[in-house]
């Protein structure tokens, strides 16, 4: 491997953007998490049902 190939390797970001989806209503929003962290589950206000609900990470969107 040449020195120039080593210097121009693409660097991966430490954080990624993920899509969060409500288990109850299907409401979605984007958030960031660390690349090496586990998948996110959190409780947040859901505007469709006007109550707090559980959100789960559905898919990875892109590197940030």
TrEMBL record:
Listed GO biological process terms: translation
Location in the cell: Mitochondrion
Annotated keywords: Mitochondrion, Ribonucleoprotein, Ribosomal protein, Transit peptide
Major localization listed first in the record, in broad terms: mitochondrion
Matching Gene3D superfamilies: Ribosomal protein L33
SUPFAM superfamilies linked to this entry: Zn-binding ribosomal proteins (SSF57829)
Matches recorded under InterPro entries: Mitoribosomal_protein_bL33 (IPR052008), Ribosomal_bL33_sf (IPR038584), Ribosomal_zn-bd (IPR011332)
UniProt keyword Ribonucleoprotein, yes or no: yes
Recorded family membership: Belongs to the bacterial ribosomal protein bL33 family.
Listed name of the protein: Large ribosomal subunit protein bL33m
Organism: Drosophila albomicans
